[in-house]
Amino acid sequence: QHTVCVWSENIIIRVFIDKQQHSKDSVFFRDGVRMIDFVLSYVEDKDGERKQERRRLYEANLVNVGLELETEDKSESDDGKTYFVKIHAPWEVLATYADVLKVKVPFKTNDIPDNSEMPMNWLSTPFRLPEHIMHPQPDYFTAPFDKSKSDFFLIDNKDTFFSPSTRNRIVYYILSRCSYFRDECGDKDKKGIKRLLNNGTYTASFPLHDSRYWTRSKDANCESDRYSLHKHWARFFCFFKEQPLNLIRKYYGEKIGIYFAWLGFYTEMLLFAAIVGTICFIYGILTYDENEWSKEICSEEVGGNIVMCPLCDKKCGFWKLNTTCNSSWQSHMFDNVGTVFFAIFMGIWVTLFLEFWKRRQARLEYEWDLVDFEEEQQQLQLRPEYETKCTGRKLNRITQEMEPYLPITSKCARTFLSGATVLLWISLIIACIIGVIAYRLAVYAAFASIMKDSATTHIQVVGPYITPQLATSVTASCINFVIIMILNLMYERVAVWITDMEIPKTHLEYENKLVVKMFLFQFVNYYSSCFYVAFFKGKFVGYPGKYAYMFGSTLRNEECDPGGCLIELTTQLVIVMTGKQVWGNIQEALVPWLMNWWGSRKARNHPESLYSRWEQDHDLQSFGNLGLFYEYLEMVIQFGFITLFVASFPLAPLLALINNIIEVRVDAWKLTTQFRRPVAAKAHSIGAWQEILNGMAVLSVVTNAFIVAFTSDMIPRLVYMYAYQPDGEMNMKGYINNSLSVFNISAIPLAIKRYMNMVLLCRYRDYRYASGHEKEYSHTMQFWHILAAKLAFIIIVEHVVFVVKFFVAWMIPDVPSDVRARVKRERYLVQEYLHNYEVEKLKIQLSQNGHTDCSCTPMIYPSIPKHEVLSECL
Fold first, then answer.
1. Which of 126, 350, 576, 690 could be bridged to 697 by S-S, CB 3.0 to 4.6 A?
2. Are 734 and 763 in contact (CB under 8 A)?
3. Which residue from 542, 557, 563 is spatially nearest to 331, judged by alpha carbons?
4. How many other C-beta atoms are found inside a 10 Å radius of the C-beta of residue 199?
5. What's the CA angle centered on 238, arms 232 and 240, to 5 degrees?
6. CB 107 within 8 Å of CB 369
7. How remote is the C-alpha of 627 from its chain's centroid?
8. Is the sign of the CA dihedral 842, 843, 847, 852 positive or negative?
9. Is residue 548 a contact partner of residue 542, using CB atoms and an 8 Å limit?
10. Chain centre distance of CA 327
11. Any idea of the CA torsion for 712, 714, 720, 725, to the nearest 10 degrees?
12. CB 524 within 8 A of CB 426
């Protein structure tokens, strides 16, 4: 026998039920009829009396609003110390709060023909899922629920009329607003499940999964959507299948559904960028033999006879240009004409992606009944932390209730402190980047010193250059990646701490503030090293005899690889981007699995009858309110890699595509198997991330134009070919000799010159006059022509791409025409059906009152609408 207590105002009803007749793996109360919509858990501790009083008042208030509770004693739990409170929302409660929340429900079957079938539709058959998985619910016209007009809606079964996600959202709405403490004056009312979780009164609150993920529920009344999602969506071998978005929305709610819709759409659009990027990369390989400047570098006649100036002071020697042969060939695979085309293509691609996503989002808004949804209306609830920390109170003009508020002076002070902290941590990132730069300079000099033979005075053919430069670049990139990951962990905590310190008023405001801070931190953290290599490295080095130095005269500013800085930017991008994606997927999959394995290690030996459905879910990880936040952040950072620096690495979209195919299934797997079922929430868009993506799309056009102009050697080559080719032919012969300036080594310190006694001149990358010229070591006219060509290229490319972007955005409407038509028809039908419903209701009332002849009154007043005559007659 087991006792279930149901509190009302003055009565305690004790119900005795035989627990052996009920499977603990069920999602119903012991009577097998009432569905468990939510579960609360708690453990008694030393502060038990105070917390017990809170629980007693809280649960009594829950019962007073109509919820039904059933408590599982700790003796029945797996660990022998956890109590579980199961909550069921009856029809009256669901109907009342569905009216309050304006939940849209069906009132008529959709009668608009579906014209989505395309010719040769059979080609997509291998990628499709069964119809009952893709469309688990019929298509209806919907309208906001009105409890007073319940017979207007298509209610076949009250127990299943509201979906499980809607039920748990309604229950959570009640839990968030139900009070657990009121002082004697009745002025201070403490309420909300979040505050009870924060102060330890309850240890967890969550809706139940409807079954185990690897098998269907034994209860015939349970739909086992979790099992269907795991079978058709969460397994990796389904990577080529479409996502069951409607089932995801039904089970997890619209907010999670919109994330996976965006991630899936983003992955689909990456396919086109990956194909074009791969073609551009293949073009670089196929034009390998047409690379004249690399042939000159590798040849003994040109590159073998050019002696280059030392790349560092004191420890570096002279070296021959042909030692950079391999680097030059590798650079050509990424630095070619295809790079310019791909940079322009990606500028247009990102616009198409964002515009088509708006259309896809508009279609989902209609299909998921989110057209009139206003997120702000759902976020009027104050955060518990705001209520706790704000002692002042004032009248809310919207709710007309007294509520806590933060004084303007305190708000300004907190905002100032928050901004100062953000600047401090950004400065820390920059300091780390400078530290990595210093490492590159010092280690390169050390490698060069080790590699060279100090006893010889001959020119080093293999030289100290290639191996030290490659080793320095790779190790610096790996160290930078490790620093990024360490700082990333610190920034997450700092950003949360700063946001908490600002005490945002609502959950929406809190999330938006955290989004801005975390993205700003991540942007500087992940991209600063790439910005350095792309736009600063090798740009401020000076020239032999007058080099620029860091930290006084200790370390000479870093020069680019003789093959150009583009290959180093590619190396940096590949290591950071690939490392982040691999580490992220391992962390997302492995950490929750290990934590769940450890948490449920005792329960694994228990038979099913002793390990209940609520205990199984209790042992899983909590998804949390910010679960999707980190998923969006990860994808937006990746979006930056493939747009901001894609001109340096055309294969970046391909790597992102492969990662996202895995990411979709990893996220689906951990959501269905490793996490408790999140509370369903509505969202009609991806929120603040949309504006961030728009900003990055604009910035990407600028960065790629600058990369092609200043980081690659594309513009200097074109200027040489069209304006400085001595033979007047359209080829690149003689380019290498033309692009290197001459320096008299007599000006080099003896510490270096002693290694090269028989060489009088050395070469370096720049366009400067040689010694003896009237403008000795100043820039030549060719330098200014190249600079003008670079600026002209940037201006032309930016304007062309921006014009095309704005034209494309103007040409593609944000809302598809058929969706607009469906929305208008639905609104028309709502008005028409509601009008007819009211008229019929009036007729019934009139007939019940004895006015049986009112149907003839319109004949007397032909100019008055029928419904007005009936109303007047009543």
1. 350
2. no
3. 563
4. 16
5. 130
6. no
7. 10
8. positive
9. yes
10. 36
11. 120
12. yes
Rounded CA-CA distance 701/457 in Å is: 49
Question: Block means of pLDDT (10 residues each) for the chain, length 874 residues?
Answer: 41 38 74 92 82 91 94 83 94 92 87 62 76 86 88 88 91 89 62 86 93 83 88 91 93 94 96 94 86 86 86 76 81 84 91 94 91 59 72 72 80 88 88 84 70 41 48 80 85 86 83 88 88 86 82 72 76 86 82 79 53 88 85 92 91 94 93 93 88 93 91 89 80 87 75 56 88 85 94 92 89 88 86 85 79 48 44 47
Position of tokens 């950072």? 637
Give 142's strand partners: 106
For residue 827, the tally of other CB atoms under 10 A from its CB is 14
Contact 255, 628 (CB under 8 A): yes
Residue in 524, 525, 526, 516 with CA at minimum distance from that of residue 415: 516
Is residue 281 within 8 Å of residue 651, measured between CB atoms?
Answer: yes
User: Can you tell me the distance from the alpha carbon of 771 to that of 752, in angstroms, rounded to the nearest whole number?
Assistant: 19
Q: Determine contact, residues 321/295, Cβ cutoff 8 Å.
A: no
Residue whose structure tokens are 């005559």: 869
The length of the chain is 874
**What tokens appear for 626 in the block?**
């910010």
Domain boundaries, the chain: 2-238, 263-363+417-719+793-811, 817-873
- DSSP result, 648-669: G-TTHHHHHHHHHHHHHHHHHH
Query: Could you tell me the CA-to-CA distances from 511 to 282, 376, 417, 465 in Å, in that order?
Result: 43, 13, 19, 50
- 3-class state of residue 337 by DSSP: helix
Amino acid 383 reads R
CB 777 within 8 A of CB 768: yes
Which token pair is 219?
A: 């209860």
